[in-house]
Amino acid sequence: MQAVIMAAGKSTRTYPLTLTRPKPLLPVANQTIIEHILLQLKGLVDEVILIVGYKKEMFEQLLGVEFQGIQIRYCEQKKQLGTGHAVLQTKPMIKDRFIVLNGDDIYARQDIEALLNYEYGALVRWEEDPSQYGVFQVDDNNRVINLVEKPKQFIGNLTNVGCYLFDRSIFPQIEKTEVSERGEIEITSSILMFAKQKPFYTQRLSGFWLSNGYPWELLSTQEFFMKQMTESDILGVVEQNVQLKGAVKIGKNSVIKSGSYIEGPVFIGENCSVGPNSFLRGCSAIGDYSVIGHNVEIKNSIIMNHSKICHLSYVGDSVIGENVNLGAGFITANLRHDQQQVRSMVKGKLVDTGLKKFGTVIADGVKTGINNSIYPGRKIWPGKQTRVAEIIKHDITD
Length: 398
Description:
14% helix; 10-stranded mixed β-sheet; globular; Spore Coat Polysaccharide Biosynthesis Protein SpsA, Chain A; 8-stranded parallel β-sheet; alpha/beta
């Protein structure tokens, strides 16, 4: 069995993190999204065809040609002309039946396995309000009779999550698919044509489906995986007077200095330094070669590789990129005084995150001055620098 993973696009909704890497290479619980996807496919497929485009060399550097027994092949989509167009690029490489998955969503193995019981089909999720999704309409036998994007009239509650099962007979349908209003060849349009000729069924999710459309959704994805941690794994050095509570993983050559308190689940990578007297709270992941300084508090956050959070700082409900240096006394405000949900700017529009607690998103290579404070939901673009004692009220993009 083969799987096709669509990972060619340049995600603008996850800026500024994806200005320097493809979205499937963003880490959650110290492992990239694409690695989480591959782990769910392990044992179900023997080959993955990865559709790449934007910064394709980063995939090749991370994965090479094999991942835990799964062969990896690369198919370049030089122009991103839609999901149908992406799948069509793999035609010379497909043998027979194959799974298609989005490269930024993580699907449960049990659901992918259940989908394989059909000849053709798609995973779906039941939504109380399906009006903002692609919706499958099915007959009494669960066979697809219609597929509508954001339907104006109710046709059902089964929404599309972007995971499909095909064989080579899908390709003629894609080749006949007309360009959509967005100027793209949509795989959903091809599926609708296909379903009129062959039995195409839906399989409702029974496990997890983790979507990562916005930067703050990385935190909920990480929380899901980290709350499954039940045992500690201490491979580094823990000095005297350190308190470890709950599941804590500490990588090789990392040092937890005296007086620190770690309240799991917490994941600390390799070659890290934490403390002295630091407080790491639940669902925080610290990347390799990172430094968490004296009297620093980290809560429910992603800290990527080679970053430094200097002394007397607080980082809560935030995503911090690689090679970031947060100067001493950096404070994230992660809660609005009016208790309203935090909003964040995405593509020029304020988007409701749905979260009452959300701190900041700081991209790779940022350096902040000492005693900086940042408002909830604000972001800093790659390589930017701030002044001493600056209060960051708006996104720093230039």
